[in-house]
Amino acid sequence: ISTRLVVDSDFVISALDRRVFGAFVEHMGRCVYTGIYEPGHPSADAHGFRGDVMALTRELGPTIVRYPGGNFLSGYHWEDGVGPQEARPTRLDLAWLSTETNQFGTNEFMDWCRAVGVEPMFAVNLGTRGPDQARHFLEYCNHPGGTALSDLRRSHGYEAPHGIKFWCLGNELDGPWQICAKTAQEYGRIAQETAKLMRLVDPGVVLAACGSSNHGMPTFGQWEDTVLEHCFDEVDFISLHTYFENPHHSSAEFLANIDQMNRFIEDTVAVADSVAARKHSHKRIMLSFDEWNVWYKARTLDDRRKPGWPQAPRLIEEVYNHEDALAVGGALIVMMNNADRVKTACMAQLVNVIGPIMTEPGGAAWRQTIFHPFAQASRFAHGRVLRPVIRSPGYESKTFPEVPYLCACVVHDDATGQTAIFALNRHLSQEQEITIELRGLGDQQRLVAASELHHADMKAVNTVAAPDTVSPRPNSRVEISGHLVTATFKPGSWNVIVTT
Ligand code: AHR
């Protein structure tokens, strides 16, 4: 098939907020314990942080990491996870029916973030708890000193305040599965009052209210409307969560999830802006897509909960295949093409639990297929996202009459002069001959890098024994003439071209 992509340096969607390359660490399964934290592991440092996982995380390139949950958050007491480790209580975690030892908590996470070089995104429990603990937690973390809570932090060995900027006001409180789920009215009021107190403690914080747990929630739209009716003035962001599934066992249908994600973003923006309109406000609420990924293979109740209150059990350790990597690449393209409103996003999660990185306790760590599109996007996407004009044939899916085979975005960095093109060929049996016209970006473009992620088997996976089965390879079928790039993309492939 033949496709065409045109961008012009003057037609800009927005500067890209690099916080869209976020990840998520929840106290769930083996994400923390035997994931990022495993004292006694051969690669562990003095803190007990796995060195192999830190190295892979740096390579993956998340910019911000959300913590400590997730559903876990809605029953969490932050006080349990600070101070001398031997004095910390062991608790039942009602979200995942696990035993939580609290050997890892806020200060360990901050140490880990500093060691890896990422920004933390924290969340306050608005399930079993409310505004009072939220303001206390923020005071513990961010107040310089001279109060009981800030001095408590100092006595724990953290003299300087943590300066945590980004805070989520609870997690998925619209979901009946959530510990102490709420109606939109109840949550909207609590979010508003919590935000008010948190801003009084630290006016520098950035706050995200919970949107819907997914686009298909029966309360979607109404939830955002009511919640923002209450807390519009107090918050900066509304969150979105989505996990791609494959109910039709069809790769073509599965890859149409990407367009669903785009629709979810458009719908959320529409509701948020209608609240702004009613309030005669110029303020625009931004979107924090703070949980997204593929998750459907390890989704039965057995995958989520094991009997006997185990510690760090194997929960939802989804093994990702090639088509999952394509979906992840497509999701990144969608979010970058919505860079004017999606300013933060977190791939959920980082390690073991629906993670791009897998580990064995005491053993190896390796990259799942979905690691690669994320790492490449985080590495190459800097600067301004240009509005892509795409001409591509498409196919009909159960959800959309026309799904273009080509899904692409273009990001230009004025600082380096580099232009990065990310493109998915959703045609599963035919190659794509693409012509890319880069207008206003320099008349004599040069190729910096070109790679393709492709496998003949859409179900191919990476394992500890064969960790590079699905990984990017150079694409030699890319040519440049002046400002025109021509390339051939294999069927079912994720492609990256960088020019200067
Ligand atoms: O990421 C796994 C779980 O999915 C999170 O705990 C929850 O927020 C979502 O439902």
CATH topology of the largest domain: the name is TIM Barrel
How many domains make up the coordinates?
A: 2
Q: Which overall shape is indicated by the principal axes computed on the Cα atoms? A: globular
Q: What is the share of helical residues?
A: 25-40%
Calculate the terminal CA-CA distance, rounded to whole Å. Answer: 27 Å
CATH architecture group name of the largest domain = Alpha-Beta Barrel
Question: Which strands sit side by side, in order, in the main sheet?
Answer: 3-4-7-8-9-10-11-12
Catalogue the ligands.
Answer: alpha-L-arabinofuranose
Class by alpha and beta content? alpha/beta
The first-level CATH class of the largest domain is given as Alpha Beta
CATH superfamily of the largest domain: Glycosidases
Contiguous helical run count: 11
Count of strand segments: 26
Structure description:
It catalyses: Hydrolysis of terminal non-reducing alpha-L-arabinofuranoside residues in alpha-L-arabinosides. InterPro entries: Alpha-L-AF_C, ASD1_cat, GH, Glyco_hydro_b. It comes from Verminephrobacter eiseniae (strain EF01-2). Belongs to the glycosyl hydrolase 51 family. This protein has 500 residues and is an alpha/beta fold. It has helices at residues 51-60, 106-116, 131-142, 148-155, 184-201, 222-231, 251-255, 257-278, 301-304, 322-337, 371-380, and strands spanning 2-8, 12-15, 22-24, 64-67, 91-93, 98-100, 119-124, 166-169, 206-209, 237-244, 286-294, 342-348, 357-359, 365-367, 384-386, 389-391, 394-395, 403-404, 406-412, 419-425, 432-439, 447-453, 473-474, 478-481, 484-489, 493-499. Helix content is 25%, strand content 25%. The protein starts with a strand and ends with a strand. It has two domains: 2-9 and 386-499, Golgi alpha-mannosidase II (Immunoglobulin-like), CATH 2.60.40.1180; 17-380, Glycosidases (TIM Barrel). A hairpin with a 6-residue loop joins strand 19 and strand 20 (419-425). The longest helix has 22 residues, at 257-278. The strands form six sheets. It has an eight-stranded parallel barrel with strand order 3-4-7-8-9-10-11-12, surrounded by six helices. A seven-stranded antiparallel beta sheet has the order 2-15-19-20-26-22-23, with helices on one face. Strands 16-1-21-25-24 form a five-stranded mixed beta sheet, with no helix packed on it. Bound molecules: alpha-L-arabinofuranose.
